[in-house]
């Protein structure tokens, strides 16, 4: 059988050739070399291979991308040929260093020097040097690096794992699917794949099951990967894809409508975004504002944190794009599966239970203060709601509000133009905050329920572990009951309650959130029109008894059965 079963983490169907993407760690040689000539030859061969690889990239990018792209590789060629660098490496080899160690030592010294300079241009050059060093070291080891951003034929990437920063580089036009061994529906890699509308699966041991350059079909809906498909399978999937596209075209007509139920109850459907680039898609589908801007992506894939000015420009652009809707911007939520190399993170046994998000920001309050200043200044250009992640104690929310007020006062003294209606809210994603929601509600203007983390903490199941998908689900009775109480606490204290975790986009759960009185759902732009379509079929006035029955469920199966009664799957 050519069907490999996995977990679908991003919907859709894609056709392409497999590309096995292996990330090699650089492991240095131990001790000293005994053969200088051999090492020098290895270095010279690596130089030739890398030169060839770069020349290929130059002609390729000239054809498929812009002159700017190929200029980057021209510059890399010049660095590769730099006499000073070459001479230093040769000296190391003459001192009995292995070629690999010599390349690593000399390049690292330049990388360190450039990245420590207080100059963005030089910091960028450090990244270039790192790129060339990796290519050279791979060449010494007889391997080739793969630049994911340069893929330009229909490809399905197979990898143990892909970092959010790697996904951000992908060209959606050619990447037809992603299959990883690690991760789950709410890992950030999966969330980003959904944003880009790239089908994605998680399959155990997949790199061993599929060979490079094999014809594949990926089915993110059913969670299946098909290798060397038969004509019958190709036909079946082509038809299914056509039907999917027809449905997409049909719901596109809803893009200018407001999101409301059959009985005319309005519930905002906003967009979750990670970068400024995601704005376009949010506007195209008629998102009713931004319910979550994950600002940590602004901090990734670079050498140092973005300045206040840089952040201000991004926030201003997003706020001015939605003059009639709220824009919820979350302060830096770093840690867990989102790491930033230039920020000093301890190695932790349980990063999701560790020094994350607000915990990091309260200890490094200069980072938080810079971000808050940029946000407060940008508030003038729209309807800003600032949201704090991972709040687990009342002390934390009080402390961040104190810092916020201090920064705001300083800016007011400088006569900076500031909106007078900035909202302050928090994520409800930690059980302690959910249990004490009634008390937290008195501290903030809104809640946004983060079901991705809340589910993992309530059920003690890692959101990244594919083995736990039957436990890690927001359908668990404990999770839905806790969410019902959070929404009730919000209502009792007259604050609005949104949901920005992935469960907000789950069509099976949509009627339940509506019956509980949720005010806003925020999701990937790719899910908005479908949710709006589903919402139109729901009569919220008829859900009360049903909701009570669902909440009385004791088992996961009971929840699933009860939800089927109000299922609006197309
Ligand atoms: C969540 O935890 O539900 C959430 C929206 O935040 P993130 O996925 O970024 O952790
Ligand atoms: Mg979270």
TrEMBL record:
The keyword Cytoplasm applies. The keyword Cytoplasm applies. Its cofactor is Mg(2+). Mg(2+) binds at residues 429, 453. It catalyses: L-histidyl-[protein] + phosphoenolpyruvate = N(pros)-phospho-L-histidyl-[protein] + pyruvate. Phosphoenolpyruvate binds at residues 294, 330, 452-453, 463. Residues 153-223 form the PEP-utilising enzyme mobile domain. Its EC number is 2.7.3.9. Residues 254-539 form the PEP-utilising enzyme C-terminal domain. One of its GO terms (biological process) is phosphoenolpyruvate-dependent sugar phosphotransferase system. It is found in: Cytoplasm. It is an enzyme of class 2 (transferase). One of its GO terms (molecular function) is kinase activity. It comes from the Bacteria. Belongs to the PEP-utilizing enzyme family. General (non sugar-specific) component of the phosphoenolpyruvate-dependent sugar phosphotransferase system (sugar PTS). This major carbohydrate active-transport system catalyzes the phosphorylation of incoming sugar substrates concomitantly with their translocation across the cell membrane. Enzyme I transfers the phosphoryl group from phosphoenolpyruvate (PEP) to the phosphoryl carrier protein (HPr). This is Phosphoenolpyruvate-protein phosphotransferase. It comes from Helicovermis profundi. The gene is ptsP_1.
């Amino acid at each position: 059988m050519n069907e490999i079963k996995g977990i679908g983490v991003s919907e859709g169907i894609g056709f392409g050739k497999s590309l096995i993407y292996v990330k090699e760690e650089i492991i240095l040689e131990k001790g000293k070399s005994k053969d200088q000539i051999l090492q020098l030859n290895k270095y010279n061969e690596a130089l030739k291979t890398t030169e060839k690889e770069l020349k290929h990239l130059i002609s390729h990018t000239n054809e498929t991308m812009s002159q700017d792209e190929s200029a980057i590789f021209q510059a890399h060629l010049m660095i590769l040929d730099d006499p000073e660098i070459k001479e230093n490496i040769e000296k190391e080899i003459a001192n009995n260093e292995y070629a690999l160690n010599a390349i690593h030592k000399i390049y690292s010294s330049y990388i360190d020097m450039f990245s420590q300079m207080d100059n963005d241009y030089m910091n960028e050059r450090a990244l270039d040097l790192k790129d060339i060093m990796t290519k050279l070291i791979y060449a010494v080891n007889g391997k080739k690096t793969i630049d994911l951003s340069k893929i330009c034929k229909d490809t399905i990437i197979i990898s143990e794992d892909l970092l959010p920063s790697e996904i951000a580089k992908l060209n959606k036009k050619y990447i037809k699917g992603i299959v990883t061994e690690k991760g789950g529906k709410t890992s950030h890699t999966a969330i980003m794949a959904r944003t880009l509308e790239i089908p994605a699966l998680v399959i155990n041991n997949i790199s061993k099951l599929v060979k490079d350059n094999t014809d594949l079909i990926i089915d993110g809906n059913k969670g299946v990967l098909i290798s060397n498909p038969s004509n019958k399978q190709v036909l079946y999937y082509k038809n299914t894809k056509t039907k999917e596209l027809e449905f997409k075209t049909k719901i596109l007509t809803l893009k200018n409508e407001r999101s409301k139920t059959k009985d005319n109850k309005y519930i905002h459907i906003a967009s979750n975004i990670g970068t400024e680039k995601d704005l376009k898609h949010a506007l195209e589908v008629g998102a009713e504002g931004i319910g979550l801007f994950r600002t940590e992506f602004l901090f990734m894939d670079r050498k140092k944190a973005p300045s206040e000015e840089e952040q201000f420009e991004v926030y201003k652009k997003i706020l001015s794009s939605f003059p009639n809707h709220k824009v919820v911007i979350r302060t830096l939520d770093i840690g867990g599966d989102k790491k930033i190399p230039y920020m000093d993170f301890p190695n932790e046994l349980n990063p999701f239970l560790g020094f994350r998000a607000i915990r990091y920001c309260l200890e490094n309050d200069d980072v938080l203060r810079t971000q808050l200043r940029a946000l407060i200044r940008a508030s003038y250009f729209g309807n800003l709601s600032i949201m704090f992640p991972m709040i687990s104690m009342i002390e934390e929310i009080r402390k961040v509000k104190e810092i916020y007020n201090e920064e705001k006062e300083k800016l007011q003294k400088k006569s900076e133009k500031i909106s007078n209606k900035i909202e302050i809210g928090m994520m409800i994603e930690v059980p302690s905050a959910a249990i004490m929601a009634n008390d937290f509600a008195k501290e903030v203007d809104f809640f946004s329920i983060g079901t991705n983390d809340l589910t993992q903490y309530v059920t003690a199941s890692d959101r990244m572990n594919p083995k736990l998908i039957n436990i890690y689900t927001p359908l668990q009775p404990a999770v839905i009951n806790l969410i019902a109480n959070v929404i009730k606490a919000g209502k009792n204290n007259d604050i609005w309650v949104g949901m920005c975790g992935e469960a907000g986009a789950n069509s099976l759960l949509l009627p339940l959130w509506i019956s509980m009185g949720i005010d806003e759902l925020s999701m990937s732009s790719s899910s908005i029109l479908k949710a709006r379509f589903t919402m139109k079929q729901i009569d919220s006035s008829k859900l009360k008894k049903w909701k009570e029955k669902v909440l009385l469920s004791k088992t996961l199966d009971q929840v699933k059965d009860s939800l089927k009664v109000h299922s609006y799957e197309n």
